[in-house]
Amino acid sequence: MRSYSHFINGHEVNGSRSPTLPVINPSTGHSLGSLPLAGNAEVDLAVNAAKKALSSWSETPPAVRAKILFRWRHLIEENQEEIATAICEEHGKSKTEALGSIGRGVDVLEFACGIPSALKGEFSTNVGRAVDSYSIRQPVGVVGAITPFNFPAMIPLWICSVAIACGNTVVLKPSERTPSAALMLAKLALQAGLPAGVFNVIHGAKEAVNGLLTHPEINAISFVGQTSTAKYVQQTAIAHGKRVQAFGGAKNHALVMPDADIDSTVDAILGAAYGSAGERCMAISVIVAVGQQTADRLIVKLSPKIKDLKIGAPTDATAEMGPLISQDQLTRVTSYLEQGEKEGAKLIIDGRKHACPKTGFFLAGSLFDHVQPSMTIYQDEIFGPVLCVVRVSSYVEGLNLINGHPYANGVAIFTSDGDSARDFCQRVQVGMVGVNVSIPVPVGFHSFGGWKNSVFADHGMHGMEGVRFFTQLKTITSRWPSGIRQGVEFSLPRVE
Length: 496
Ligand code: NAD
Prior knowledge:
By secondary structure, this protein is α/β, with parallel strands linked by helices. The protein has two domains: 6-248 and 454-476, Aldehyde Dehydrogenase, Chain A, domain 1; 252-435, Aldehyde Dehydrogenase, Chain A, domain 2 (3-Layer(aba) Sandwich), CATH 3.40.309. It is built from 16 helices and 22 strands. Helix 1 packs across helix 8 (206-214) and helix 3 (80-91) runs antiparallel to helix 7 (180-191). The chain is globular and about 85 Å long. Nicotinamide-adenine-dinucleotide binds at residues 146-151, 173, 175-176, 205-206, 209, 224-226, 229, 232, 247-250, 281, 381, 383, 409, 450, 454.
C-alpha cells in the first residue's frame, strides 16, 4: 500500500481527521491507499505557509534561485525511475511514456533554470533630461496550481518550476487520481535547498479547489483539466480577484492530404491516437482525409496496426497501451462507441471485441469511419482510444471543418507540399500546429496553449508566456541627480 499525505511547509501533514478517497490502480481496479482530502483547514495551513515564505523567496536573487532549480533538476533525474513507477501504478500508462513525460517536465525546469536571463528588464536612459525609465518583472505572489490526472509530473513541473523560478510561492493540488508524483517532486525540491513553504502540496477534490479559488491570500491560479472545470475555475477565480489561466480539453485533428507519405503518416497518427490510451490533451482523435482514396489507403494501413496494438499493464514491458483511468471513464468511452453507431458512423474496429487483460479498466483501440461533423463522437472530447475518420473532398473543406470546431488545442497537417503546409499554418484557427508532426507540444523555451474552448487565459504555459503570467510588470521613471530644480508643473510631464 502507498501512504499519502499533504506536504506543507516542508513537512508531511496527514490530515488524519479529514475524509479520504481510495487511489485506484487502473490496471487492477484495486486500491493503492487512502488519500486525505484537504478541507478549509489544510488549505489555510498551506496558503499561510506559502504566504510566510513569500517575502524571503521573492527577494532571493534569481541566480540563487536558479542554483536550487539546477539541483532540483538533478535530483528529479536521479529519482525518475521511482517517480515513473508511481505514475504507472496510479495512471496505468507505460513506463516509457511515464519517463518521457517526466523528461518533458524537466525540459521546462531547464528553461526555468535560465530565469536570471528571462527576468532581465528593459532600460531607457535619458527619456527626459536626467530622467531614466526602466521596467522590471516582479512575482505575482502566492500561486494556486490545480492539475489533471493524465500528466502527474509533467504538468506540475510546467506550472510550478516557472512560478517558483519567478519568485512566487506555490500551493499545488494535483489530481486526486494520480497524486504521488507531485508529492515526490515537492520533497525533492526541499532536498535541493528550496526553502520550506515555497512549494506545498495539498490533496483533494472540489472542496480543496474551491478553497484555493476563494482564498484571499492566493494571488494567481494556474489550472489544467476539462473545459467545463476550466470555465468554472476561471469564473470563480476572477470573481475573487485573482489572475487566472485555465487550460481545457481538446479535439485534435490530423488533416491528411493526398500527397502525404502514407506509411510515416500512419505511424505518426497511430502513436498520437492510441498512446497513453488516448488520454492526452494533444492526442489525435480525428483524421480529416482529403479525398476518398486517401481515406481508403489510410484505413487499409491503419486497421491491422490498431488490431495488433499490445494492450497491457505497465508492468508488462511489451505493452503499448494501458488501461483507462477509471471505471467511469471506461463506461463513458464505451458509451461513445454505442452512440457513434446509433448516429450512423461505421465502427470498423470495435475495441470491446479485442483481447484485453481481464482486470482493471482496459479497452482496446477503436476506429470509426464515415463520421459526420454533426455527430456527438465528432463534437465531444472522448479522451480514450477512439479515432474518427471524416472524409472531405478538398483541402479547403477540411480546413473549414477544423476551423469550425469549438476546441482548438492542437492540429497537424500531413503533406509533402510546402505550399499547402504554409497556407495551413497561416489559416488554421488552432493554438499549436504540426507539419508532419502529430503531437506538436512546444519545447520548454517556447509556450504551450490552445485557442477557443481549449483555453481560458491571456498567457500560455511555460517559455516566456509562463514568465509573463507569473510576474507583474513594474515601470519606474527616475530623475538623478536630485539637485535639479524643475519648479512646479500642473500639466502631465512631457519629454523634452
Ligand atoms: P478534471 O477537470 O476532471 O480535473 C482537473 C483538476 O480539477 C483536478 O485536480 C480535479 O481535482 C479538479 N476538479 C475536477 N472537477 C472539479 C470541479 N467540479 N470543481 C473544482 N475542481 C475540480 O480533468 P481530468 O479528468 O483530471 O483531466 C483530463 C482533462 O484535462 C481532459 O479534458 C484533457 O484534455 C485536459 N487536459 C488539458 C491539457 C491542456 O494543456 N490543455 C493538458 C492535460 C489535460
